Amino acid sequence: KARLCVLISGSGSNLQAIMDACRGHILNATVVQVISNRADAHGLIRAQQAQIPTEVLNHKTFADRPGFDAALADHIDQCNPDFVVLAGFMRILTPGFVERFLGRLINIHPSLLPKYPGLDTHARALAAGDQEHGATVHFVTPTVDAGPPIVQGILDVLPDDSVDTLKARIHQLEHVIYPHALDQLIKGNVCYRQQKAYWTDGRESNSPDI
Ligand code: GAR
């Protein structure tokens, strides 16, 4: 089984979807550790309920970003994961950290990247009048939200959508595409190669897959 170390900062609904997929044997993986930079992250309770070890590493107790990232990397190495899974982890990571886990560091972002890197993605998609919106699972590279997409989920923006309704549907979509993308990674159907998501069957890296 693949060993997953999941990093969170908040609700942890994506963590929940991943734990459920592991438990239901949809994913041939085990979440070996959940690390949060916030002690009040609800995802910690979800992990504890599933009897998964948790760790809080409060970034505010470190002098600077490299100091936090070095401690984080050491904690991650101790659980010897195959993949480091960012699931609503709201910290920017230093290039040194990213390089250390390159190809094994995965993120989910609530937009159709390269559209709307950063925050407030749903409001920005609505403000732009986009007809489609979505979420992207991607390899993390040193430039924030710019790594190669592995899987994208797309949905239609409805005429009466608000930020909240759109966000709720994106979340549901995320809970499907994140376990799916991890499954592809664990099966070795896709890997990181020369700054791209390389599919062993030759398909394009960023084509929507579900
Ligand atoms: C998710 O929508 C995820 O895409 C987003 O945070 C949310 C976490 O929800 N991530 C980012 O914005 C990363 N820049 P969750 O805690 O319920 O999984």
Strand content: 15-25%
Main sheet makeup: 7 strands, mixed
Q: Order of strands across the widest beta sheet?
A: 3-2-1-4-5-6-7
Shape: globular
Roughly how many Å is the radius of gyration?
A: 16 Å
Q: Provide the succession of SSEs.
A: EHEHEHEHEHEEHEE
Number of strands: 9
Q: Look at the helices and sheets and give the structural class.
A: alpha/beta
The termini sit apart by: 24 Å
Helical coverage, percent range: 25-40%
Offer a quick outline of the entry:
By secondary structure, the protein is of the alpha/beta class.
Written account of the structure:
The chain has 210 residues and is α/β, with parallel strands linked by helices. Helix content is 33%, strand content 24%. It has 6 helices and 9 strands; from the N terminus they run βαβαβαβαβαββαββ. A 7-stranded mixed sheet has the order 3-2-1-4-5-6-7, covered by helices on one side. It has a two-stranded antiparallel sheet with strand order 8-9. Helix 1 packs parallel to helix 6. It is globular and about 45 Å long. The mean pLDDT is 96. The chain binds glycinamide ribonucleotide (GAR).
Write out key terms for the chains shown.
210 residues; alpha/beta; 7-stranded mixed β-sheet; two-stranded antiparallel sheet; 6 helices; 9 strands; 33% helix; 24% strand; binds glycinamide ribonucleotide
